[in-house]
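Aim 2, interim progress. The first record below pairs a target sequence with its structure tokens.
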Amino acid sequence: MASRSARDVVLLALTAALAAILFSLTLWLTREPIAAARERAVQARLLELVSSLPRDSELTLERWPIPPRFHTGLGLEKPAFAYRVLENAQVRAVLVPTVSTQGYGGAIRLLVGIKRNGTITGVQIVEQRETPGIGDRILAEKSDWLQIFTGRSRDDPQASRWQVRSAGGAFDAIAGATISSRAVIRQVRHALDYFVDDRQQLLAPAAQPEEAPSP
């Protein structure tokens, strides 16, 4: 009886060990496909900001370091990165991250798409804690307010008018959410400032892969 119980314990232990090995093997075999799928999903979300760009071939993203001198204006901590949108090694647009600490509920994280000519392709709210039903209408799924930035540039409107309309600016605020609106407007402008000030580097051609020598 005792020997049978011992065999059952050993069998149970071997079964558990085999299950653990199979589970670990499954994780190891699927980690790269899962990571690749996750990366494709992230890239697709980012490329939504430039979906209006006419193109002849596939767009790709290149992570690009933002020099420390721009971190304060953009509200970023280092290391910080923008994304260059490439088509055949040419930079078609840049996705600029920026953070406002002046939202009603705290930090508002944005991503601003900017074409190489300096006009905005779109704005995404990446993270926010604004009041549900009021300030969170800055989200694209809650309203179309973010579309007011599409096609704008650092000179359109002029600097003094990058404000809500009630303060003499060119932009309507979301009703009941002036603080949230003001915070987003200010940071979109800061993203444009960065793009213009670092434009030469941001738009530098991407390195072309070397061709294999002919046999």
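The second target in this work package is listed in the same format:
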Amino acid sequence: MKNLHKIFVLFVLLMSATTIMFAGNPDRQGEAGAAELLLNPWAKSAGLHGMSTASISGVESMRFNVAGLGRIDGKELNISNTRLFEGSAVKLNALGYAQKMGNSAFGISLMAVDFGDIPVTTVDQPDGTGATFSPSFLNLGIGYSYTYENKISVGILFRTISESTPDVSAFGFALDAGVQYVSGEQDNFRLGISLRNIGSPMKFNGQGLSFQGDNPDGNVPYLLTFDQRSEDFELPSVLNIGISYDFHFNDKLFLRTVGNFTSNAFSRDQIGAGAELYFNDMFILRGGYKKDFGSSGSSLNNVYSGVSAGASIELPFNDSGKNKIAIDYAYRATNPFRGTHNFSVRMLF
């Protein structure tokens, strides 16, 4: 009963946060920083536009609903590469590990943004100095989930955020929390709620914000070093509410349908739906559609408004069938650019 009471309290707190999150509107778009927190490096969930708040499990749950961390049977290792916004030359690389221990589960995930080599330019050399640099954007998340009687899961995740160039950097922390509820004779119905990217403001510091200028007292000519103060910026907080329902046709074939609402504190809210077709626990096809609230065609729309699609192949590599290797692929339409491609390799053991 004590565990049920704690779960109920957390559920109420997450629901109460809805009133805060709905305060967001598109007029605030661009005011938040650390936008990489909204990027999804994992292919399985990307095929559904990240709308699997209610059904997501394992390593990928640490991106959307950490309550699903314990919805695995043993251990999971996930390695992923993403060609972000095809044509931009930006990539995402991610590595995650999750392990279930009784009713609890622990996980760790790391994501890095690869911007490639950017030419160094100056006022005197606008065409480049011949040198290059690459910003370093890293996210490290450590998550914990507890499952009560296989029906209710709760989870919390602590994430560090690091953004830096050779002479400027910013560092911050964020918390995610989530709840999943499963019901039905075959666990057909699922409900999920997650609150993400709740943390303190971040601020850039470093020598790159300093410059040399003339002494204000013109009577004594010499140079002084001036330090510029950067403005604080908020994290892009997000509330997700999702449901899913499974239709079992036979022992080898079932269809999972999902619906999801996303409230963005610094951009338009989004709603969408999708489906996954599972065959023989080996082949999975998925697709989804997400739409922004508000007038279509607006320049304030999110970049991911439209269709997504993906597929997975899960093959056992031992006689028991419990140990599997899976390959996931996903494509998401973007505006602008030519879409995003996600590739992941998972090992379940």
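Helices lie at 2-21, 43-46, 61-64. This observation will shape the mutagenesis plan for the next reporting period.
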